[in-house]
Amino acid sequence: MKEIIIMPCLDMKEGRVVKGVHFVDIRDAGDPVEHARFYQEEGADELAILDIAATQENRKTRREWVQKVSSVIDIPLTVGGGISSLEDIDFILEAGADKVSINTGAVRRPDLIREAAEKFGSDRITVAIDARRNTVLPSGFELVVSGGNLPIAQDAIQWAKHCEELGAGCLLPTSMDGDGTLKGYDIAFTRAIADAVTLPVVASGGAGTLEDFYTAVTEAKAQILLAASVFHFRTFRISEVKDYLHSRGIPVRR
Questions:
Q1: Short-list 135, 212, 215, 199, CA closest to 167
Q2: Using an 8 Å Cβ cutoff, are 168 and 125 in contact?
Q3: Which residues pair with 7 in a beta bridge?
Q4: Backbone angles phi and psi of 59, in degrees to 5
Q5: Are 106 and 127 in contact (CB under 8 A)?
Q6: Which helix (DSSP H) or strand (DSSP E) does residue 242 occupy?
Q7: Checking phi first, is residue 250 left (phi over 0); if not, alpha (psi -120 to 50) or beta?
Q8: What is the band of 181 on the pLDDT scale with cuts at 50, 70, 90?
Q9: pLDDT score of 12
Q10: C-alpha closest to that of 147 among 22, 15, 10
Q11: Which among 51, 88, 130, 186 is annotated as catalytic?
């Protein structure tokens, strides 16, 4: 088993880190630069910034947010939100990101994934997949876009397979049913994605206990563990998560 990556996530709105439940009920969670600096010092392996309002507001990710955060860290930074063209990706990478996460833009024009992988390299292209349960779809998981606001009657697992075919380097599935609830990652959804592809898969949405991180690896087969609330509100330190995983036989960077 490869070393598991711990990735705090900064959900951004109006220049602040925020956190919601089921993508709504947003509350303030602090300053992004302070969080970024703290997480690097704490031993985070990578960091993510998601501009959660960019697509809804029909704008691009705020370049200045990326610049400020990237200036205080040297761990890999993934940035997502409002990215819908090769120009957008170039813009974000030049601002200091190491990778981009595309979501709605890729669903609307799937060839963006192929074009981006060819131009920038697959390892820099993550596709975020937001979904909710819907028994009408073959897998039981329906793709949702526009910041979690628009279900589109498309099967999320089939979309994951297509993303791999198009050249994505990593998949970031988030369950709207579990987001921000602190009730644990959506194991069934994450595992369904992991079983469908050979790419690294990020577990995202709902981590609330140390056991949740463990089951995301052992049951959901995730290779990257993303969390927000438990880190932002200091429920756990990153070192605690790593120590716990290590104690249970999961390889981590130390």
A1: 199
A2: yes
A3: 226
A4: -140, 175
A5: yes
A6: helix 238-247
A7: beta
A8: low
A9: 81
A10: 22
A11: 130
Q: Collect all residues with Cβ–Cβ distance below 8 Å to 111 and sequence separation of at least 6.
A: 166
Q: Residue 69, SS3? A: helix
On the question of pLDDT at 72 being above 80, the answer is yes
pLDDT digits (tens, 9 = 90+) for 96-137: 999 999 999 999 999 999 999 999 999 999 999 999 999 999
Of 94, 87, 16, 7, residue with least CA distance to 52: 16
Residue type, 119: K
What lies within 8 Å, CB to CB, of 190 at 6+ separation is 173, 175, 201, 203, 216, 220, 221, 222
In this prediction, residue 241 has a pLDDT band, given cuts at 50, 70 and 90, of: very high
Confidence of residue 11 (pLDDT cuts 50, 70, 90): confident
Helical segments of 124-177, H only: 156-166
Tell me the per-residue pLDDT of 34-55, one tens digit each, with 9 for 90 and over.
999 999 999 999 999 988 665 5
Determine contact, residues 66/79, Cβ cutoff 8 Å: yes
Active-site residue among 11, 179, 186, 212?
11
CA distance 113 to 138: 24
Please answer whether residues 154 and 142 qualify as being in contact, where contact means their C-beta atoms are separated by less than 8 angstroms. yes
Q: Does domain 5-247 sit in CATH 3.20.20.70? A: yes
- Give residue 122's pLDDT: 98
Active-site residue, 11 included? yes
